Amino acid sequence: MEDTSYWLPLIWVGILGIAVTLYVVLDGFDLGIAILFPLNPQEHRRDVMMNSVAPFWDGNETWLVLGGGGLFVAFPQAYGVIMPAVYLPVIIMLLALVFRGVAFEFRWVSKPKHQFWDLAFTYGSIVAAFMQGVILGSILQGITVENGKFAGGTFDWFTPFALFIGVATVAGYALLGATWLTMKTHGEVSEVSRQHAKKLLLIVLAAMLIVSLWTPLAFERIYERWFTWPNMIYLAPIPLLTAGAAWLVWKGLHRNEDHTTAFYASVALFLLGFAGLAISNVPYLVPPTLTIWQTAAHPSSQMFMLVGTAVMLPVILGYTVFVYYTFRGKVKHGEGYH
Amino acid sequence: MDPDAVLLARIQFAFTIAFHIIFPSFTIGLAAFIATLLVRWRLTGREYLRTLARFWTKIFAVSFAMGVVSGIVLSYQFGTNWSQFSVVVGNVLGPLLGYEVLTAFFLEASFLGIMLFGWDRVSPNLHVTSAVLVAVGTSISAFWILAANSWMHTPAGHEIRDGIAYPVDWLKIIFNPSFPYRFSHMFTAAYLTTSLVVLAVGCRYLVKARFVEESKTMIRMGLGMVAVLAPLQAFIGDMHGLNTAQYQPVKVAAMEAHWDGSKPANLVLFAWPNETEERNDFEISAPIPGLASFIITHSADGLFKGLKDFRPEDRPPVKPVFFAFRTMVAIGLLMIGIGLVGAFLWWRKSLFDTRWYLSTVQYAWPLGFIAILSGWWVTETGRQPWVATGILRTADAVSPVTFGAVLTTLILFVLVYTAVFSMGIYYINRLIEKGPQGALIAPEPDDKALPNRPLSAAKEANQQATEG
């Protein structure tokens, strides 16, 4: 029994990690294309951009439900502390997602009077991305907990650090969106996105550098994690791999024939950034007080859910791949069901 | 916790879930309707069935999008507004919601992509299969969420240690006492709601003699379902009521505004329940003595508990439960009437010529939605003051969030939902106004047709209308 109550939470952190990672990558590029709307005011470009993700967006967003739901299932204590702590950012994010989600349909059915839904799509996505970054930032900077309950204030999340992570997330998603469009479309949209992707890569790298300096300087536990012996040696591959991924994106964007490398490298870049933040915070789920074991659900609940997940997750991944495969290839103008 | 903040959190949850429930209760039935049309199309090869499926798929897409975005909100509200609820019952309810995500949400969301965008891109069989899988997904989703909700009404299969619920027997948790009834009742309600919408839209077209072939199909399929499901629903509802009388007697007492449990009860048709003096003002009862007792205990002199048998702090608010129940039952009877009259006219072979029936029923589309909302109002308000019966009171379930924060977000929800969803309903109405198009015009064989040829112009107009 003691063994399961040690291992189960670890497995669940792994599963949640997969869910959040898939969410960030998959919804990352589809939020990203909306973030790029202001740079592409032409209606025909916007039609192509939206159609490049339209068959997938709903599936992509379901990973967000699994992320939130998974936290509720596996770590109800953490869910019960984190959600009240980031109350306003979460609700604003959800409302922003309402605007952007319905825009996928409303923009087409309201044509030719679709200007409002263009705005809803763009700003819904920007605000949602920004708030996701703010939520991440507020968890990283620490949540005030007393007796296992959130004991901080309504605006604890409103700090320069959390807001900066918010901006960085918007830039990161925009980069994913730009490399996706470069790969997934052709002609004008692909070429324009390639130009945007290069600039965004530089912005994202600058943001990653700032976060890498800011977190160890501001939080002692993170400094100790990275800059003490022998952790420095073990963790050295992370910055090296990050540099390698950045170089691959840059190089992938220069070549003219194939842009899949640039997209996958930008995904890798994003994942490495996440890995870095996760390493900074192990073993806390609610830093700096509650560990994954302190917040875990009862082993029976985690086990019951694990059985289903072990069966269903491969099935879900299977048909997700199938749907992407069905809509493989570059998007043509005028495609869609509307 | 500030009692006002509790009330605000309740209003917020009631508001967001009431908006949400409208869309799934429509899309559960609609997915099945579209899948049925497509399967029939594959079997018969009649092209207008595909046109009809394509038309309803557009409406489905708009409704489903609204269901998704309003549903994501709910999955986070358990934490933002009801964090103590998550802590106390999370061990039990978490996995049920988790299974909903794993077995239903991904299935629906992934195959929705193929269902919406695969019309000309994938093989017809794969496309039809995708539509069936979406319909299956919506039903699985209903299964899990109603298992979770039913457990909150009639908890079973758990034990309480230090105020926290722990799972003991998962089968008992899922198949808790009220689950089979609640699931059948809600599932039937969803199909009934969609059938009424399909029937009403069919009538709307036929009255104006538009899309005659399509509208007759819609009326036949919609009416067939209503004629069977509406009476069946009354029977299921009665069974559900018996179950509630057994496990949640105080809810039934509130539904019937029944105060004194020591006497058999007459059926109250109208009253103004007076909670301070524990009696009904302006009461009008059905002239048959003991009718309420007969409905609830199936015996005219049967006794069931009255509100006075419970301490005031353990009673739900009586008026909302009492009136919402009456609204639901009245609509249910109306639906049975629509079904019976329609079936009679159908049998007499005069259904499509009876103008008064068609022009009345075209306005019946909201009935199912109102009945569903009333029904949920009865069951959820009737569970108060508990959020999980006997385990956790609603007042103890809220998050440590300030009054101001809850008020702010409530205002935002009301503004955003009202704006977004009224636009959605406006667009759905516009799609219906435009109607199913395409199959009745002969396909143009060569694309090089000159625009001044009439057939090509018709095709073009038709295309614009379809694509718009």
Average the pLDDT over all residues of chain B and give the rounded result: 87
What is the CA-atom radius of gyration of chain B, in angstroms?
25 Å
Number of domains of chain A: 1
Mean pLDDT of chain A: 88
Rounded Rg of chain A: 20 Å
Q: Strand arrangement, largest sheet of chain B?
A: 1-2
**How would you characterize the largest beta sheet of chain B?**
2 strands, antiparallel
**Protein chain pair with the most extensive contact, residues per chain:** A-B, 69 and 73 residues
Q: Kindly name the structural category of chain B.
A: mainly alpha
Strand order of the largest sheet of chain A: 1-2
* Count of individual beta strands of chain B: 6
Instruction: Kindly report the oligomeric state of this protein.
Output: heterodimer
Instruction: Give the N-terminus to C-terminus distance of chain A in angstroms.
Output: 56 Å
